[in-house]
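Dear colleague,

Thank you for sharing your sequence with our group. We've completed the structure prediction you requested, and as agreed, I am returning the results in plain text so they can be pasted directly into your records. Please verify that the sequence below matches your submission; if there's any discrepancy, let me know and we will rerun it promptly.
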Amino acid sequence: MWNTDGIAEPRSVRLLVFTTLGLVLATQVFGHGVAENDQGFLARAEGVWAGPFMYLGAKHMVTGYDHLLYLAGVIFYLGKLVDVVKFVSLFAVGHSITLLFGVLAGVHVSPYFIDAIIGLSICYKALENLGAIRFVDPKVAVFGFGLVHGFGLSTKLQDLALSRDGLIPNMIYFNIGVEIGQVIGLVFLYIGLTWLRDRSNFEPVSRNANVVLFGAGLVLFGLQATGLFID
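Please find the predicted structure tokens below.
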């Protein structure tokens, strides 16, 4: 799979790309969607439900592979924990703003359109990591894409016709859960990337990993753009 210089052979790169894309296709339904059982609870919930809404928010983030793919790209080359905190905080602020604003103000955007942009956000970060593009300061890009990711979930929640009784505190609790889930996911990502960063072949592996990341984002964009066109 690897040659004597620690660089992945073309066949191995293709295998990684197609394996990742296959996983993305197989789990597309879980991108920003809400599980059927969870939908039933959210649609019926009246009054304030702190625990359940925090749990569902955390569950969404932990199982939301599109969020995790983007965050993996964001922290890929961040060796210092303080830098990870800075970038992730910008993403969290952007995500929280549009999640809360979208639901509470009733601002609805086509989920296909938003998820297509989310796919592009993954592609952009991968290309930025590869040194191919850099249109704006990375911190600005992370905050901007955080705004987009927040709208992705808000559109799904609005489709459930949530009860106005307790809506504001429930959405705040849900958002807290999202951030808790984000921290959980980041812990595993950071540990894995720290281990990878210490390997002698980190540079060639990192290039191949970001090629795979770009491919996954491209497939997400293609699927959602197709859905937007058909819809």
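Summary note from our side: DSSP finds nine helices and no strands in the chain.

Kind regards,
the structure core
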